[in-house]
Amino acid sequence: MAEPAPPEEPVAPGERRFFWRQGLSSRLLLLTVFIVVLANLLILPPNLSAFEEQWLIDRLRAAELATLVEETAPGGVVTDRVRNMLLANAEVVSVALQVRNERRLILAAPRLARTPYLVDLRRPDPLFWLAPFRTLTEGGDRMVRVMAKPRFREGEFVEVVASDGPLKLALLNQLGRLMSIAVFTSLMAGGVVYLSLTLFLVRPMRRITLSMERFRADPDDPRAVLPPSGRPDEIGRAQSELGRMQADLRAALASRARLAALGEAVAKINHDLRNMLTSAQIASERMALSGDPRVAQALPRLERALNRAILLASNVLTFGRTEEPPPDKRRQPLRPALEAAGEDAGLMAAGVRLETEIDSAAAIEADPEQLHRILVNLLRNAREAIESDPGREGVGRVIAAIAIDDGWRRLRLVDDGPGLPQRARTHLFQPFAGSTRDGGAGLGLAIARELAQAHGWDLVLASTGPEGTVFELILPAGSVG
């Protein structure tokens, strides 16, 4: 049996080519040509009407000048030969002059077979722009009677009668010239607009589009990086924002890859870790039988740590987020919870000590294990920040207090450390991005905030600086009392 043909290799989005008929520049060219042609069509009626009016005025003035021959003729009589020459030269068949309510037929031709239609140029006609189209469609064998005020003779008006055949021919020639000009200007304007828009708009947009396609195909492709052009307009801003967005996405993808790797690693070691912790728990139970008072004093703390470790190992990190069970909220004293968390976070009287300004009767409604993890993360970060300050020699304090603000309770943890650097503030609650220590994962604050939000609380950085750092757990009024 013949082997199936291999599938065609897809073209990478970054290598796609824009066909002319599908590109933005071609559509802009056609749109420009259409707009210019439409503009020429809109100005065509007034242009033709003005041309027709001027043609009629030229005939009328030529006929009016021809009437001056009557005054110079012997006895005021014009022969038929001279009259026909004057009428032919003016392209009219008769000329009349109205003087003091008396109409004088100065140059007359034989009687007409058809009654001419009237065009009175003494009064503007709002529909005169339609006249050229009537002449083009109906003219050719009609006669037109034109009236206007005289310019070279005294009188109320001068009147001529002429054939509209020459007028129709002149209008056709003028229409041809206008259409030629319209086609020429449309092509020229379209070409100029096409080249301008291609240079200033289409080509930059094409580069932006290709950059996005290449980035989608391969975010690590160096060709996907679009260098900023420095343009102050919308195109330049789009290029700059695209570059920033790509940088943010690359950082997010790198963080996501690390989170995925972490989840996979934890999933692999989770089984063995739980076995080890179970063995340690069994060993601690055997140690309880030793009868040593020092062992009996330290054993409860060891058991609590082992129980928490076993519970935590059961919740595998998936995609960088701990799949926490819903919090099992219980009312519990707040001050002992703080002291237990401080002990597990390494706070002690000889080094970084915990000072609580919270009443011993204060209680909080929270999941005991999750509250412990929140407080341990915050207190451990405060201790490590103080110990990292070379001038402190590992001595400092963390003050825990409750503040009331518009019905909310704020559990404030105030340390006297050196403050957080700007890099840590920018990505404070992002996994792998907010660590200030070498080798730190930057997960502590992210986990603490996630657990707090699962309770309906929030964890915020209230302030930081050389005088110290303040973190606040924002709690509803009913959570603490």
Helix-strand blueprint:
Layout: H1 24-66, H2 68-72, H3 80-90, E1 94-99, E2 102-107, E3 117-120, H4 131-138, E4 143-148, E5 157-163, H5 165-217, H6 234-287, H7 293-314, E6 317-318, E7 321-322, E8 330-333, H8 334-344, E9 352-356, E10 363-366, H9 368-387, E11 396-405, E12 408-415, H10 422-426, H11 444-454, E13 458-465, E14 468-475
Parallel strand pairs: 3-4, 9-11
Antiparallel strand pairs: 1-2, 1-5, 4-5, 6-7, 8-10, 11-12, 12-14, 13-14
Summarize the structure in words.
The chain has a 5-stranded mixed β-sheet with strand order 2-1-5-4-3. A 5-stranded mixed β-sheet has the order 9-11-12-14-13. The chain is rod-shaped and about 160 Å long. With about 475 residues, the chain is an alpha+beta fold. It contains 11 helices and 14 strands.
Task: Give a short synopsis of this structure.
This protein is α+β, with helices and mostly antiparallel strands and 481 residues long. It has helices spanning 24-66, 68-72, 80-90, 131-138, 165-217, 234-287, 293-314, 334-344, 368-387, 422-426, 444-454, and strands at 94-99, 102-107, 117-120, 143-148, 157-163, 317-318, 321-322, 330-333, 352-356, 363-366, 396-405, 408-415, 458-465, 468-475.
